[in-house]
Design brief:
Layout lengths: L3 E6 L7 E6 L16 H7 L3 E8 L6 E10 L1 H10 L8 H19 L2 E8 L2 E8 L3 H12 L12 H18 L11 H4 L12 H19 L5 E6 L15 E9 L2 E7 L5 H17 L7 E2 L6 E3 L1 H17 L3 E3 L5 E2 L3 E6 L20 E7 L2 E2 L2 H9 L4 E4 L2 E4 L4 H17 L6 H10 L8 E5 L3 H8 L19 H15 L4 E3 L7 H16 L9 E5 L4 H11 L5 E4 L7 H9 L3 E5 H6 L1 H4 L4 E7 L10 H7 L3 E7 L8 H11 L7 H13 L4 H11 L3 E2 L15 E8 L3 H20 L6 H20 L1 H5 L6 E2 L2 E2 L2 H15 L4 E5 L2 H15 L5 E2 L5 H12 L6 E5 H4 L10 E4 L6 H8 L11 E8 L3 H11 L1 H5 L14 H8 L9
Parallel strand pairs: 7-12, 13-18, 14-19, 20-25, 20-26, 21-23, 21-24, 22-23, 24-25, 27-34, 30-32, 30-33, 31-32, 33-34
Antiparallel strand pairs: 1-2, 2-4, 3-4, 5-6, 7-8, 8-9, 8-11, 10-11, 14-15, 15-16, 17-18, 28-29
Helix pairs in contact: 1-2, 3-5, 10-11, 12-23, 14-15, 21-22, 22-23, 24-25
């Protein structure tokens, strides 16, 4: 009878490996263990037989019988299975169990094991267990599928898991045999050593320990992957040649248990594992479909990828494969670089130089360079780079990657700039500086550094220019405040570089004294030089000519001053001679326009434009005249660089540094629309980056600038309309709505705007006083009754101010209203006071200002907003009244700053009048709601009203029920 040894895993509950024997018909024998086993197996089995009852298949039905069997523990089972030689005649079951032992040993050697707490034969025990990684689970599924039928008797697949678990515990303990228990402090860890006695463990403690180790094992499994795809750079022979695309090898590998840290190539795996890898490769192709079109290596499953597919792999493929559970290894040599541009000054002949002191007009000799980290590419490398496409390119023998094809695009940009320079059309200073500070959407990559270009280096490194420390000029008869001293240093630094400056300090912070300090300081440093420094041309409104003359006489009397104004002013050669002998020539905007040809014949050392917002409209004759004046250096002085629109800012900067912000249309598209309409903070940041080096602005509310200004209180005074005012108001609204409804104003937008502006002006006049609107010369009061709620409140307020011994400056935007109001108020207050307006001559204005500034002067001054809102120092008053509103915070604030400025010692009260229930109150609320817009130096004027829809316009202008008082 032919017999064969069969094995069945019965280690459920710690039994062991049982051997029994069958005859040729497959029936179990009941005899003793037969002779004739291979000697190695016989030595293991001998002396261990026992009787065991199992169910076996009979001729008819299953029955139970005792068969000869041998039960082996883990150590003996390992000894038996390890003794099986390839040429031993044993059953397929024993060979299968040898396969399980070999595989388990590989997992143990790889370290894919974990301590665990489990229940064995009714007792909790600490044991070693396989780490259930994807590799383990995949292998276990394969092992179960390959098991002989007798092993899976009654369909019990858990027996295989138990068998491998017992082997794992035995093999791990055996590997720890050199560790002495005394060397281990933890009692828990000691139970994992060979022949260790497991201490009793409560159910609660065992459950907690089992959960903790399970969580730890879960952490070890994170990121594990059976299939590994390894990308290899092309060999020199694989790179693009004669039109053939470059081929990258995506090597198909697998992370196996015995080599967990290094992928194993496919050829190292056995046939069964190759089948598994093929299945996993198909899953990888589903995760990254671009692999479907890739070529395959003739001798492996490796993919041969073009550079374009590699880019796709780097961009999206790695993420998709990782999400699907596949690991992708990339070459360490592929650097993900952030290319940058550098700007370098050159000497004549093209050699880079250490530093060049240049202004806007002279910065022509420079070159763009491409840098990868600290490495700057040469011309040959740039040419080679420009020919390559895509994000992944080869530079200096190494593959580097930059997003959006930045490397090749940057190389092309540099070549284009070089071609422009060689053709005599390099970028001008405005374009260059714009690219450097705000060229993110125009440059392929950012500018990382500037070298050898003086102040451009400084701005790139610090975001601003750091002026040198200078002493105050000895000839200046004034002690500069700290912020004024810094302003003087800043102005002198920009002057030395021939860069225009916008000094935009708040009204009252002393822009005049800072300019005088600049002029005095430069004259002191030029003394002894062969050629005397030239003359400063100062252009300003007529209202402040006298103020400049007085300030120079007070703080710098050694400066020779020529006033170029009035019918007796010099002309021709006498003027040129007198100007050359003067330190400062002062003229007005109007005279600059009239004498443009004369003034343009002189090459001025400096052009200073005071109240520069007056020439914000570049199309006016005055603006064109002032901008045409030749000067080495230009300064614009303004407390309101932005009044209504950001275009105001562009025009002021363009005055001192032409072209810096581009044309009006370019500036509007790039900055103005985004800020004014959308209040885009990024656009604000970009605009600040390009303008901040050339604008110096300090505000009085900053305690680090000035700490000795008194408190300022702003009050809104709400007045009711009289019945007469209300009737006129309704009539104007009705006329406007009727005109809009008839479509008379719809032929052209300009016609509609004129109609709306006319109605707006009438309504503001009515809110002031009926006589102002009617223009009929009728009295302020009738039968001792007020015709205007505003005037009634104004009279009461001014009487109280005068009674308290204080003084007030009252602003109106209408000259006609001021002319009408001045005699009535003088009679009501009981003292004569002046009305300062644009129709007065220079001498009359100066006299009014001097009288009001005198301690014994009048308590009230009435001023038109345009004539008295700028350039004056009227700190003798401590009350400001805005009788009618310009609805522009910037303009109103600069008018208030005639009083709230350095030299003011008393608390300042600012009152702004509005009529309740009218457009005045509603627009005042709109401006208050949009106050944050003015914080971005964007103010709201009246022009927006003309474009308002009819319904919204009526809602703004309608007369509310609360408008009329009792």
């Amino acid at each position: 009878m032919t017999r064969s040894a069969a094995a069945h895993a019965l280690w459920r509950g710690g039994v062991g490996l049982s051997l029994w024997f069958t005859d040729a018909d497959g029936r179990a024998c009941t005899e003793h263990v037969p002779d004739g086993l291979p000697p190695a197996l016989d030595s293991v089995v001998g002396g261990r037989s026992l009787r065991r009852t199992i169910t076996v298949a009979g001729p008819g039905a299953d029955d139970r019988r005792d068969i000869a069997s041998v039960t082996l523990g883990p150590a003996a089972a390992c000894e038996l299975l390890e003794a099986i030689k390839p040429d031993d005649v044993v059953g397929g079951e024993l060979r299968y169990y040898r396969y399980l032992l070999d595989s388990t040993e590989r997992f143990v050697r790889s370290g894919a094991i974990t301590p665990a707490v489990s229940r064995v034969a009714g007792e909790w025990a600490v044991r070693w267990a396989p780490l259930a990684t994807t590799t383990w689970r995949t292998w276990l599924s394969t092992a179960i599928a390959a098991a002989p039928p007798v092993v899976l008797d009654n369909g019990d697949t858990d027996a295989i898991m138990d068998f491998c678990g017992e082997l794992t515990d035995h093999l791990c303990r055996t590997s720890c045999r050199d560790i002495t228990p005394a060397a281990v402090r933890s009692s828990f860890v000691r139970t994992l050593l060979p022949d260790a006695d497991a201490p009793p463990m409560s159910a609660d403690k065992a459950t907690a320990a089992a959960s903790a180790w399970a969580q730890w094992a879960d952490g070890l499994r994170l990121g594990e992957s059976a299939l590994v795809l390894r990308l290899n750079e092309p060999d020199e022979g694989d790179e693009e040649n004669e039109g053939e695309p470059t081929r990258w090898r995506l090597q198909v590998c697998r992370r196996t248990v015995d080599r967990p840290d290094e992928p194993v190539e496919l050829r190292r795996l056995d046939a069964h594992e190759i089948d598994q890898v093929t299945t996993e490769v198909a899953g990888a192709v589903r995760a990254f479909p671009a692999l479907k079109i890739a070529r395959h290596d003739d001798y492996s499953l490796d993919f041969l990828l073009s550079t374009e597919v590699v880019l796709e792999l780097l961009d999206t493929g790695v993420g998709a494969l990782s999400e699907a559970g596949y690991e992708v290894l990339l070459p360490r040599s592929i650097a993900h670089v952030r290319p940058t541009l550098t700007l370098r000054g050159k000497q004549e002949g093209g050699t880079p130089q250490r530093s060049v002191v240049v202004g806007f007009d002279e910065i022509r000799n420079f070159q763009w360079q491409l840098a990868l980290g600290e490495d700057v590419l040469n011309a040959a490398e740039l040419d080679a780079l420009a020919r390559q496409k895509g994000d992944l390119v080869k530079v200096r023998g190494k593959w580097v990657r930059a997003d959006n094809a930045a490397l090749s695009r940057t190389a092309a940009f540099i070549q284009a700039q070089k071609a422009l320079a060689e053709s005599g059309q390099p970028a001008d200073m405005g374009e260059l500086f714009g690219l450097m500070t705000d060229g993110d959407d125009r440059l392929p990559v950012p500018v990382s550094r500037v070298e050898g270009l003086s102040w451009l280096d400084e701005i790139k490194r610090r975001g601003r220019m750091a002026p040198p420390i200078l002493s105050a000029p000895e000839s200046l008869r004034a002690e500069l405040r700290p912020y004024q001293h810094r302003g003087m240093e800043w102005l002198r630094h920009l002057s030395s570089l021939r860069i225009g400056a916008v000094l935009a300090d708040d009204m009252g912070l002393g822009k005049t004294i800072q300019v005088l300090a600049l002029i005095c300081g430069e004259l002191e440093t030029s003394q002894g030089e062969a050629e005397r420094r030239g003359t400063t041309l100062l252009v300003c409104p007529m209202s402040v000519v006298g103020n400049w003359e007085r300030e120079i006489a007070r703080f710098a009397p050694h400066l020779s001053v020529l006033i170029h104004h009035g019918p007796g002013r010099l002309s021709g050669a006498p003027f040129v001679t007198a100007a050359a002998a003067s330190d400062v020539v002062i003229t007005t905007f109007a005279i600059a326009s009239r004498d443009r040809k004369l003034l343009s014949t002189i090459s001025w050392d400096r052009l200073v434009v005071d109240e520069a917002q007056h020439i914000k409209n570049v199309a006016t004759a005055q603006s064109k005249a002032v901008r045409s004046m030749p000067a080495r250096h230009r300064i614009a002085l303004t407390g309101t660089p932005v009044e209504n629109r950001l275009e105001d800012l562009r025009s002021v900067i363009d005055l001192v540094n032409p072209g810096l912000l581009g044309t009006a249309s370019t500036f509007k598209a790039r900055y103005a629309e985004a800020i004014e309409r959308e209040r885009d903070p990024r656009a604000v940041q970009r605009l600040s980056a390009i303008t901040s080096p050339f604008i110096l602005r300090r505000v009085k509310t900053d305690p680090t600038v000035i700490s000795d200004l008194p408190e300022k209180a702003e009050l809104t005074v709400r007045a009711n309309l009289t019945i007469e005012q209300a009737g006129l108001y309704r009539a104007v609204i009705d006329d406007l709505m009727e005109a809009l409804g008839r479509g008379e104003t719809k032929e052209a937008g300009s016609e509609r705007r004129r109609t709306v502006f006319a109605a707006l002006t009438r309504l503001k006049q009515i809110c002031n006083h009926p006589a102002h609107y009617l223009g009929d010369g009728s009295p302020i009061m009738r039968r001792n009754e007020h015709r205007s709620g505003k005037i009634e409140l104004l009279a009461d307020i001014l009487e109280n101010i005068v009674a308290d011994g204080e003084r007030a400056l009252v602003f109106t935007q209408f000259t006609a209203f001021g002319t009408m109001l001045q005699p009535w108020l003088s009679d009501r207050i009981g003292q004569q006071f002046s009305f300062l307006h644009g129709g007065l001559g220079r001498q009359a204005r100066d006299t009014m200002v001097a009288e009001f500034s005198d301690p014994d002067g009048p308590a009230i001054m009435l001023a038109s907003l345009k004539a008295g809102g700028t350039g004056l120092n009227l700190t003798s008053a401590n009350h400001v009244v805005h009788l009618d509103r310009w609805w522009n915070p910037a303009v109103e604030n600069q008018a208030t700053d005639r009083v709230y400025r350095i030299g003011q010692q008393r608390r300042v009260e600012v009152r702004k009048f509005v009529c309740v229930g009218t457009l005045e109150e509603r627009i005042d609320q709109l401006i208050a709601d949009k106050r944050e817009l003015s914080e971005l130096t964007v103010s709201t004027g009246e022009s927006w009203l003309a474009n308002t829809a009819d319904d919204e316009l009526y809602d703004l202008m309608r007369l509310g029920d609360e408008a009329v008082g009792e």
